[in-house]
Amino acid sequence: MTHASKLDDTDRRLINHLHGGFPLCAQPYAEVGLQLGLSEQDVIGRLDRLLHDGWLTRFGPLFQIEAAGGQFILAALSAPEDRFEEVTQIVNAQTEVAHNYKREHELNMWFVVGAETPTQAQAVCERIEALTGLTVWAFPKEREFFVELRLPA
User: Fold this and answer.
1) How far apart are CA 81 and CA 28, in angstroms?
2) Is the whole model's pTM more than 0.90, yes or no?
3) Which residue ranges form the domains of the chain, and what is each CATH number?
4) Neighbouring residues of 135: CB distance < 8 A, sequence distance ≥ 6
């Protein structure tokens, strides 16, 4: 992947500082800025640029959706190679699909469905089946593990 910008030392400090924590207060970006000697606007601007340029793919909270009554499902399907892009577009067009990965396996497309209820999550899988004509294999989360991965910038 090529990036439109380069990471500087301040970008690295910001990324490393935000790994595993973000202040819960009225002005969290100002608080982060204070901790790093930056302005609130500099923190926001740097995060916007890092997202836009592909250094970060996501910046936001992770929720335990089941605690709110929802459900995450890891799902897979076997997309014929000549239809892979078409199927990818259909799967990714579903607002409940969070991630989509190509794998070297009979089940070559894996994706995550997140919905407000288990019924809605199942309905998304059924909708994808109807739109693609392909069987969706759904693997709802049975047990949660917390594995924190920190890679220094």
Assistant:
1) 46
2) no
3) 9-52 (no CATH), 65-140 (3.30.70.3460)
4) 77, 78, 129
